[in-house]
Specification:
disordered N terminus, Rossmann fold, about 35% helix
């Protein structure tokens, strides 16, 4: 299935946000013991299911992300404010890039807390910056580390911590890649397309070179005050 395999084919400098999230999830999945129960909350196409093949993997989604997505692997369909699993069902809950798409994130955090076993762990990622509006009209928020930790504590979670995933240069890499779409839009008068045509391959080479450079430069951004995403880790 395309959804399951897509994370293996990421070009880092073309999509540093997805690359960073995937590498983060690989590390987290490796720390989860074999046989532990894991809920992928807001799983979409369940493209990360293979990372949790050693665990008891379940997924849920409300099935309205993208029209072309394949939801055939989804364990159950539900609103995350009213999850379809019993209280204390899971050792781990993974929720990636979902919280920005729900209008009442505090209610979702309450529900993720409910379905975790006592002592269970929530791994949640959410965007801070560098992301355009997407999955309209289900795109409501962007988050700081303080907002995420507040929501977690409000719901009863303890031992909350956040760390950035991708810094200033990864964000700039995304902007450079996006420049091509804005400088050479598909819908333009013929004469304007003809005028731009000689510059298109030159800019294509330029954007790839600069995007790669920015991707590798991100290691020198120590503070990451500008970041793409945050990873929130908290325990029930």
């Amino acid at each position: 299935m395309a959804g399951k395999d897509s994370f293996r084919n990421i070009t880092p400098w073309r999509d540093p946000g997805r690359y960073g999230l995937t590498e983060t999830l690989k590390g987290l999945a490796a720390e989860i013991p074999a046989g532990a129960s894991v809920l992928d909350a807001g799983a979409g196409q369940c493209e990360y299911a293979d990372l949790f093949a050693h665990a008891k993997y379940y997924s849920c989604d409300f099935g309205k992300g993208e029209g072309a997505w394949d939801y055939s692997m989804t364990s159950c369909f539900c609103d995350l404010k009213a999850c379809c699993f019993r209280e204390g069902s899971f050792d781990y809950v993974v929720c990636t890039q979902v919280l920005e798409h729900v209008p009442e994130p505090w209610a979702v955090m309450d529900e993720l807390y409910r379905v975790l076993k006592p002592g269970g762990t929530l791994y949640l990622t959410a965007p801070f910056n560098g992301f355009k509006e997407h999955q309209a009209p289900y795109d409501f928020y962007r988050y700081t580390r303080y907002g995420l930790e507040y929501l977690a504590r409000r719901s009863g979670f303890a031992e909350t911590s956040t760390r950035p995933v991708g810094g200033f240069f990864w964000m700039m890499s995304i902007f450079v890649m996006e420049m091509h779409r804005h400088l050479f839009p598909g819908r333009s008068p013929f004469w304007l397309k003809a005028l731009r045509l000689p510059f298109k391959p030159l800019f294509s080479l330029f954007k790839k070179a600069v995007a790669r450079l920015f991707f590798y430069m991100d290691r020198y951004d120590r503070d990451k005050e500008f970041c793409l995403n945050y990873l929130l880790t908290c325990r029930k």
